[in-house]
Amino acid sequence: MNVKRFILAVIAVFLSFQVLDFIIHNLILGPTYQATASLWRPEMMSLMWVMWLTGLVLSILFVYIFIRGYENRGIGEGLRYGLLIGLLFAIPGVWNQYVVYPVPLALAVKWCGFSLLEFLIAGVVTSLIYKPAE
After folding, report:
1. 3-state DSSP assignment of residue 82
2. CB 98, CB 57: distance < 8 Å
């Protein structure tokens, strides 16, 4: 394992998730969340540290699993990996939340699509940064 590239990839993936989450959830879906404010925890912002911590853990595991199966096939490998992990997270994660919480179907569809997009981007970022030790 190339530790330096592993750490750089983890940082890049974490930052990618954070920036994309801000764009998706604040800018794009913000009006939807405001229209459904009664569904959300009022003190949610005080618990954001939990989301940052889980985002860091996700980033570490995402990159670690990628490098365990690393084939040095470039961006295509990153896209394939991002799609597979995205499907693994998005399908049960989003649709189970849709069953449990009274969110609009349109919001669940957007969550699923944006989640897949985020993982595709994370896969590309990882494939561009991580390379075997030279």
Report:
1. helix
2. no
d(CA 55, CA 67): 18
Q: pLDDT by residue (tens digit) across 40-53?
A: 888 888 899 999 99
Task: Render 22-72 in DSSP notation, one character per residue.
Answer: IIIIIIISHHHHHHTGGGS-TTGGGGHHHHHHHHHHHHHHHHHHHHHT---
Terminal C-alpha separation, the chain: 10
Rounded to 5 degrees, what angle do the CA atoms 49, 81, 2 make?
A: 75
Q: How many CB atoms lie within 10 A of CB 20?
A: 17
pLDDT digits (tens, 9 = 90+) for 59-88: 999 999 999 999 999 999 999 999 999 999
CA distances from 56 to 2, 33, 72, 104, 126 (A): 19, 24, 24, 29, 14
